[in-house]
Amino acid sequence: MDTQALQLHDKVQKLIEQYSKDKEKLSKLETELKEITNENINLNEKVNKLQNELRTAQDSNLKLNQERNQLTQKNQELEKMISAFEGFANDLNTKIDDLIPAIEKL
User: Fold this and answer.
1) Which of 4-8, 70-74, 84-88, 93-97 has the highest mean pLDDT?
2) What's the whole-number average pLDDT of the chain?
3) Concatenated DSSP letters for 39-105?
4) Among 10, 15, 30, 104, which is least packed, fewest CB within 10 Å?
5) Contacts of 7 (CB under 8 A, 6+ apart)
6) Residue 73, Cβ neighbours under 10 Å: how many?
7) Three-state DSSP class for residue 10
8) CA pair distance 74, 83, nearest whole angstrom
């Protein structure tokens, strides 16, 4: 019976040692989980911040594109006006050139 008691004692001792190792391992894993959870929270915050910055940049880009389109349209209108003015100036120049000989005859 002593051998059975000793074997049982050894088995209980091994179970206690294994429990202690597992408990220590669990504690380390819990600590690691907390660190990973905190890192995940920080990364999510960064992702949210970057998404907000991206939305802001996209909004700015859209506004700048709209402004560019408006300026392009105004530029085209001004070029048409300049072209019309140049045509008017050329016609006026031609008329003045035609009047000069008539004035010189007077």
Assistant:
1) 70-74
2) 94
3) HHHHHHHHHHHHHHHHHHHHHHHHHHHHHHHHHHHHHHHHHHHHHHHHHHHHHHHHHHHHHHHHHHH
4) 104
5) none
6) 10
7) helix
8) 14
Distance CA 80, CA 86 (A): 10
Distance CA 30, CA 33 (A): 5
Work out the average pLDDT over 47-70. Answer: 98
Distance (Å, rounded) from C-alpha 75 to C-alpha 70?
9
- pLDDT, residue 28, reads 98
Structure tokens of 42? 């920080």
Backbone angles phi, psi at 36, to 5 degrees: -65, -40
Task: Answer positive or negative: Cα dihedral of 84, 87, 88, 89.
Answer: positive
Q: Which residue matches tokens 């007077």?
A: 106
